[in-house]
Design brief:
72% helix, 20 helices, mainly alpha, single chain
Length: 413
Amino acid sequence: MLIVFFVDLHPNYPMYKIFTLLLLCCLSIPAASYSQAELPDSISYLLDLPLQSKEQIKAYKAKLPLIKPLTPKEQLPFLHKGYKASKKADDLYHASSFSYRLGRAYRQLDSLSLAVQYVRETYKLAKDNPKRLAATTNLLGNIYVNLCDYPNALMYYFESYKLRKQLGNNSETYPLGNISEVYNMMGDLDNAIKYNLEAIPYSKKLEPPKRSYNLTIDYYRLGDLYNQKGKPDIAEEYHLMSINEVKTIKEEDYGDIKSLLFVAYAEATKFYILNKKMEKARFFLDTTSHFVQAEMENDFFLLKAKYNLETKNYKEVERLFSEVKTSENKEFESQMLKVQLQYYERLGDNKNALAVLKRLNILEYDKLEKDKLRYYAFANARYENLKNQEQINELNRQKELDQITILKQQAYG
């Protein structure tokens, strides 16, 4: 589950948190550099194929499933080869396909400036291809979320929604879910719930297993939103609906079912911890443990630590922290330090609490130093883009403009 960036612009939310969170939300990472890895002959031969005609380019693109097992970095030379050849041959259809894949790969590598460059190129090339344009605008929305440029993200998500509605293939659920997530990040819970609810009828029309996959996500997101809204009874219903839905998916129909099961049960566990229903939290925590895979270990560690902190099992919290492995994941480190801070505060151990707080401040200050120049540039760009977009009138988004005006005043004094 999109990395998440939490910037809350809700009018009742504390203003110091709005400013702090927005300053810390973007992570600036330089463009990836790569050297070609040792590749099996069954794949590397693609780089030697001649691509001088549209027929050769089409045949080359048909072989691209061969590179799926490669990392995004390893895929880049294959994608660049196809893109350059397509442009040279004036093959706009395949050029847009390769530029889209390049943008997606660079986003996965956190090279967001290059991601924007190639996906914007796709946007120009695919103007007569509604299906590709729908996917492209959704991807642009994702990238602008990564850049914390929420107005642009919303603009492209709404454009993707309109295009998908014209296609009539029920894929509207994807941009609607993304729109809901952006409003949640902005603290606008009413719109977040509204668009999540609008996504559900489209999810229900999808073919299995996509139907249950999307509904599982729709339901647990609604559970989180209603809990934030102060309606835990409704939230609990949606969390249980999410779990019931994911259990209908057969492993042979969806290979990564354990990941989805983990997320559904973990989200329910978080809900019960937040609402102090610790017996139910224990049940769902134990169930979640059956679906932990390597990439989920950090998330599960935090879940266990939070549960034991709430049940005042401080010895277990101490044991967990003594066994935690060193991680280069700064987001995990930040979340871990926040749990440690709560732990020492509850013990009344001010000395260790202060030491953890200093570490947390250093971590967040480092991110702030890297981000602040880009933040101010994007804050101004957000305001100007919103101000000039005709879509504001069409979609009645005056609320967003007002929020960005407030944000601009805060950012620039």
